[in-house]
Amino acid sequence: MATQSSIDLSQLMYVAYYGRPGDPAGINFWAEQFDASEDLTAALSAFGTSQEFTDNFGTLTATELVNGLYVQLFNRDSEPAGRDFWVGEYESGQSTLASIALNIAQGARGTDESTITNKITVANTFTTRVEQTQYDYSADDIATIREILAAVDEFEGSVSAAIDDFGVFFPDAGTTINVNGSGAFDAAADDYLFLLAEGEYNYTISGFSSGDQLNFAHDSMPTIINPSLSDGEIDLIIGSDAGLVEIKLTGVPAEADQMIFSYESFNAAFGDGSLM
Length: 276
Prior knowledge:
Number of strands: 8
Helix content: 40-55%
């Protein structure tokens, strides 16, 4: 399994180099490559060699390529000194464009740092949604998601606006979310059916309400062990024949503060049919 630092690096490279979030399979693949590589520069060079790059950027000059990295990362043109330095590195063969992208991203400060941080937040949210919903994230979607990500800036409002724009990819109401591992999902906007298959999970759901449902994809009756509600937050450990399912629910009304001891009382607290 890839390390979290390499997963983070993989997403950063997708945003910096391609201007889009990575798909789950791509994130994991490149994270494993980064972990396994004794020479990160070589791994980054391999990352930067793709048909997608050729199709989108293959006809650009070195100056346009370097400036494009600044635009994708920070929503601004490069300053002349920085641009000229990196163009020289690229044209001389001292640095690959992928390595330059990483160096520019890691050197961000102030507003630039806030902007790339927000873009990564949006990208991570999108990648997680793709994995949760098993959405078929294909080449046809890239132009749209690049436009959404390009609008994210240093302000927090741009993050929520971009996530709202994900509606063009993911249906709003009554969406089924496949819980298939560690992750997180914000259920505040609409009603969601969380489908839990067999296995052991560590999963966070925020904004859970009586309109949302937890549905076990296997036939065993779930048992809730030592849960509690406190100040609008609940930690549940739900046992089944397949193992343990650990779920953290936030956004629960504080007035629902109580101990839940059974399947029936969970439904009583959150609404009939919440736990199926």
